[in-house]
Amino acid sequence: MNHLQATTAGESRAQASAGATHEHLTGVSCDDVPAGQKRPEFGCFNIGTEAGLKFAAPQVYWHLRTFPNRAAADAHKSATGIVVEEDGRVWLSEFGARDLVVSGGHQIAVVGPLELPPAKSYTAVLSYAVMRPGDQSRVHTHPGPEGWYMLAGEQCLETPAGANRAKAGETLTVPPNVPMELNITGTILRKSLVLVIHDSAFPRGTPSQWKPTGACAL
Q: ∠ at Cα 140 (111, 136), nearest 5°?
């Protein structure tokens, strides 16, 4: 069974252009940006973290909603929800069963299922990525599942199972401990929200020695 999934969650009319020429970013990882430090224009940036999560089921869903303002999102978030302001909108992320009831705001996507490895507790890290066609992530793995909601552009994720693609308005998931390389495809700037829920005893991600075959270039 191929656990990678791409599902439509609505349409996006991305107008951002990637520019005619640029030096490709390679080996990109999602990084923390210290308070007061200006964030680079392109890359992947950790924007919200919730630690000490407990889940009774072996899988979880990421419920993603937007709100008109920060106060409204904060008023509806649970003790383990994450509220961020990014890409001109206020986002609430909640984690639970597929039929989890999240009130208020506007539902954007339900991403999953995200398969969880056995762990005493989990940490959810929400990231925002802005990358250009031709940019690539480092080859890496996560000690937990990863999910994407695509805001604009296109991407192709290569794993040992092959290439899986997603575009604006779609979602993508990958199970824990799978080596991967993310490739930005298409012709416009790619923007996405990215979630990793990992075993709290381990770092969010680590480099992998797996060698991609270039399947995303086909």
A: 80
